[in-house]
């Protein structure tokens, strides 16, 4: 057995962007699976591990790079995307095809090895044919029964002609009896072949074992074989269940390790869709999984970074005024840091963060001032966004600034202790316009929102009396920028000129009406 801890420096994890430290999970599971599969308990059967994580938590990324790590160890790795072949009637063909492809790439060139592979393919084909035949009988009996009834109903109504009840009943009965007899014969033939089918399954398992254990693989390739199955929870409920059944009963082969990545809660819903809401789906799934491994809750900053990367959220349209950055990378880091601190400050769980980032993504995509290069102010948007996610109701910037919130997490927008500011740690300098240094202690989020609210009623007057130090001056510059972009710096009549920032609540609500659910709650 190869220990994952010996000589492993899988730099490819970092190169692939392992933002959630999934490399540590891979190293642990490699050692665990190799050790467990070598135990006497699994000398005559396979091992099935379920990786449980919600969408967006890196399951597919993990499987892809875990497979790469195992291949570097000279293990055979079969990769199956169940969702891609979900249109097929039976998942057996999907798994057989993937195994066949991997074996072909790794079989030795000896005649015995080629013969063993052909034998495996032949028995696999016979096995698949048996299940296709059984499915055809089932579908035929189900569909022909209703088709016959429809035929007689249609004939009875054609051109007003009525078939006498006695003739209709006799003809219908005779036809049904003939078809029933045919199907019964076919069913009896399948039942009579039951023992032969068992022999085919046994022969198939033995042919796979021969390839693994009799030196038919390329030199250096070692058992066990890892079969990774992804996206199972996205499949049709019946297809997902049949995939589990096939794995457990047809591929229960020594030196086979199945690793399934699922959102197990969603998979449970698929089971209940077939067997009913009262069915114990968790107990049912435990029949198939030896163990379930759940990813640890990641640090918020790493989780936010991972989510932004996986969703390709364009933060370049957003602005953190007053934060000195010289490169795009520095600006991005500052924005991710701010988002992370906000989510941490308000004790958001990963599910809350996902949904808030959905809101942010939709807000950015629907931002109507993008073509005018007017940036979105994250200092204002993020607290509003979190509040809307929590309460699902509109609240004005003015009310938000007054801390007029029902959610306990959001009532206090002030730093949690003296000298600790939610926005920025350390001093920074306003490099443009001659502003002097502003200390983090000069303003909290609540203070900044209040200043934005007051000055936002009329951005033409935002500069009136604003000092050139501290946050008032910095906010005045934001509104001056907006005035220049939207109005060319020219006052439009005598009326007040409110900032587009005051439109944020309505835009957030519009973004919130987009949902991943087909029938979202209102």
TrEMBL record:
This is KAP family P-loop domain-containing protein. Residues 39-288 form the KAP NTPase domain. It holds the Pfam family KAP_NTPase.
């Amino acid at each position: 057995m190869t220990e994952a801890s010996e000589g492993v420096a899988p730099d490819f994890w970092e190169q692939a962007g392992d933002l959630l430290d999934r490399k540590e999970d891979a190293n642990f599971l490699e050692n665990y699976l190799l050790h467990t599969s070598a135990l006497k308990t699994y000398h005559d059967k396979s091992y099935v591990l379920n990786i449980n994580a919600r969408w967006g938590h890196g399951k597919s990324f993990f499987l892809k790079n875990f497979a790469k790590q195992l291949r570097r160890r000279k293990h055979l790795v079969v990769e199956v995307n169940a969702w891609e072949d979900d249109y097929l009637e039976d998942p057996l063909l999907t798994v057989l095809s993937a195994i066949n492809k991997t074996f072909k790439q790794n079989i030795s060139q000896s005649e015995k090895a080629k013969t063993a592979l052909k034998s495996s393919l032949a028995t696999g084909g016979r096995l698949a044919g048996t299940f296709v035949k059984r499915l055809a009988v089932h579908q035929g009996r189900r569909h022909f029964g209703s088709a016959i009834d429809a035929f007689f109903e249609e004939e009875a109504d054609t051109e007003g002609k009525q078939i006498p009840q006695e003739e209709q009943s006799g003809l219908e009965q005779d036809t049904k009896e003939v078809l029933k007899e045919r199907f019964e014969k076919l069913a009896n033939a399948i039942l009579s072949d039951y023992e032969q089918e068992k022999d085919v399954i046994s022969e198939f398992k033995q042919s796979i074992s021969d390839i693994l254990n009799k030196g038919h693989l390329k030199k250096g390739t070692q058992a066990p074989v890892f079969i990774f199955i992804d996206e199972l929870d996205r499949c049709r409920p019946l297809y997902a269940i049949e995939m589990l059944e096939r794995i457990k009963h047809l591929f229960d082969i020594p030196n086979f390790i199945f690793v399934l990545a699922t959102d197990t809660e969603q998979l449970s819903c698929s089971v209940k869709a077939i067997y009913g809401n009262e069915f114990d789906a968790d107990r049912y799934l435990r029949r198939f999984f030896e163990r379930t491994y759940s990813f640890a809750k990641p640090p918020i900053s790493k989780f936010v970074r991972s989510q932004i990367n996986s969703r390709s959220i364009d933060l370049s349209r957003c602005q953190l005024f007053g934060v000195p950055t010289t490169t795009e990378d520095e600006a991005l880091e500052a924005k991710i840091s701010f988002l992370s601190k906000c989510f941490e400050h308000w004790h958001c769980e990963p599910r809350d963060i996902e949904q808030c980032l959905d809101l942010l993504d939709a807000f950015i995509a629907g931002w109507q001032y993008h073509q005018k290069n007017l940036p979105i102010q994250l200092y204002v948007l993020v607290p509003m966004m979190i509040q809307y996610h929590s309460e699902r109701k509109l609240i004005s910037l003015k009310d938000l600034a007054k801390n007029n919130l029902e959610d306990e997490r959001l009532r206090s927008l002030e730093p949690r202790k003296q000298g600790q500011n939610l926005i920025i740690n350390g001093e920074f300098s306003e490099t443009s316009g001659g502003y002097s240094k502003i200390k983090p202690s000069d303003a909290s989020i609540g203070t900044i929102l209040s200043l934005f609210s007051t000055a936002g009623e009329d951005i033409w007057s935002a500069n009136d009396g604003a000092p050139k130090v501290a946050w008032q001056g910095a906010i005045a510059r934001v509104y001056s920028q907006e005035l220049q972009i939207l109005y060319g710096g020219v006052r439009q009549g005598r009326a007040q000129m409110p900032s587009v920032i005051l439109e944020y609540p309505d835009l957030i609500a519009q973004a919130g009406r987009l949902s991943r659910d087909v029938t979202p709650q209102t």
